[in-house]
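Appendix B, record 7
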Amino acid sequence: KKMATKARTGRKASPTPSRLTPEPPVEKDEGISDEEDPAELRLLLELNEQEAAVLRRKVEELEGEEEMLKRKVRELQEKLSAKTSSASSKVLFKETEPTKSNAIYEKKITVLEEEMNDLRKKLLEKERECERLNTELTLTQKKPKILQKTKSLDADQQALDLKRQLQVVEQEASVLRTRNNTLESDNEKLMSENKRLLLSQSKKAPQDKMASLETKVRIIELEKKLEQANKTLAEKEEELKSKTSMDVKLPEKASSLSITEIEKLKKDLSKAELENNKLNDALRRLKEEAVTDVIKFYKERTPKKPTDLTTKLQMKKMVDDLESEIGEILTAFKKCDEERKKSASGSVQNNDLSKYKKEIQDLKSKLDQTEREKKNYHEEKEKLEKLYKSAEEDKKRLDGEVTKISSKTELEKKALRDAKVKLEKEKSELESKLDKLLKEKNENNAAKDEIN
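Structure tokens (predicted):
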């Protein structure tokens, strides 16, 4: 008996290996806040950088538009100066007709001044928009925390759900660790007491220790895999959100553009119909009136200038109008020839001939101008068609890329979900193994009681 008690005290005092020492229980809230803060900060920083890039692009576009408007203003100023100088010279040379030429040039000057005022207003509006965008840029760079809070509340609901799931998994893992620690301590006690009494149990005990150690290592590995899988899921869902938001923006822009274009086309159609009626009236008037009235009409008519916003239908109508004007000029030209043949010889005839020659020269110059304008319209029409085709091709390419990206993200999501299911299955298997170990422990305790 004395020897047995000494052996027991020696065995109890002997230190256990470092592997089997029970680990301190992990707190539930430990390691959550430190791991979540940098990831959230990175996401919010990336969002702020994307917004800053968008604002910079807008600023660059507005600056380009400002430069274009400034160039147009300069060109209009040069035209104004040239026209005013030519008007003054013509007034000096043509003292016989002071009232008519002055009225025409004054009308043109008023039109140009109105265009100048409109362009200045547009310039001021664009400069204000640039200033507003610059202030927004500075605010986004200075105050990222406020933006982070607002965006995290609106856009990151799925990320919060995933974080909650992670917390639940970590809690379950902590419970499993505590169970493992208790099982290891119980196994150590059983080993120290049953080595002397049962050789069979002494063989099974190290196997139990090894199994518990293996389960512990397996649980740690599974926890790491779960954390990685949840992180990748969160990243992929955020990428999907950003891509879907971009995809939604593109069709919204396209729809707004299509509606505005349809409204513009309707307005242009109504304008074109009015112009067509006016031209028909002018044709009738030209057939009835004399050549002098024709010259006055064409001097007072407004020139047709295409812009970047003109559509195909507008260009076609402008070309048709020019062709009708050419026909009118040709009819007037024929009338001039007929009247020249009918006119008698003498001083009166010479005066009429000089007048007709001047009028013919004016008509020829107008014909040349109309033909040049027609050529310019055709060239601009071809350019617009090319731009339209390139825009449609870009749109198709973007749609294809969007479909590819969405399919890839869905496949990655499925793979991550499968991995999560596998991890949960492994977790359930480990729990079943732990239950088996508990049963074996209870059997060992029962055997110990029977031996005592």
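Remarks on this record: Residues 1-35, 93-99, 247-258 have pLDDT under 50 and may be disordered. The radius of gyration is 45 Å.
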